[in-house]
Amino acid sequence: MNTTASPKTPLPVPSDDHLEERSRRARTEPMSVLSLGDGLYEVESASEHTYLVDLEGGRCTCPDHVFRNARCKHIRRVAIEITAGRTPPPGEIAVPCHDCETTVFVGEADPAPFYCEAHTIWPGDTVVDRETGDRLTVVDVSVLRADAVRIDAAGCTVAEYTTNESYDPDVPVVGAIYPHATVARHGVVPESLRVYVFPRTRLEKQPTRAGSA
Ligand SMILES: [Zn+2]
Ligand SMILES: [Zn+2]
């Protein structure tokens, strides 16, 4: 009786070879993924075939899915692109920032304008008025639109105000003050401390300088 142990051999991996192959090809093959909205993605393969992927439905128009009902390399690739942040997930779309070329993912129903993280403004931020070049400090970022907010002193809406005519009327308004405004002790609040209301797109966020307080 031969008591010598058999040579050590790796156990067969209990998986479908096709499955592994699809997973590898999903990662390595050149494919372009275009988000179409409504959870649909157009995938162009290296062979220049174009397939439509419904990610949430787990469907693809390629033969591998249609005839073998496989989780094909196209469906996998869409999932990989989303995980990597290169393609928006279902329910979101990719749009350019209003003030730069950066692509941002926003909800499909979100209203424009859209801004990247660097151009999103918050109370306390410094902005520049594109009309005058004046620097201002943001005190409020509203959800109200320029054509819905009235300037009582002018008797019109923010959108209708003369110097705002070239800006879209359907953008949110931003309240800002001129930072040089100072208030004397017990003094009257100067005109310059008033909050001025601007269409969002009229103001451009100033980059925060490294090291500045
Ligand atoms: Zn496919
Ligand atoms: Zn930007």
TrEMBL record:
> Which spans of this chain does the record mark as coiled coil?
none
Q: Where are the transmembrane segments?
A: none
Q: What is this protein called?
A: Zinc finger SWIM domain-containing protein
List the residue ranges of the region (Disordered).
Answer: 1-31
Q: Which UniProt keywords apply?
A: Metal-binding, Zinc, Zinc-finger
The family database entries (Pfam families) matched by this protein are listed as: SWIM (PF04434)
Superkingdom of this protein's organism: Archaea
What are the GO MF terms of this UniProt record?
zinc ion binding
Regions of biased composition (Basic and acidic residues) lie at 15-28
| Boundaries of every SWIM-type domain copy | 51-83
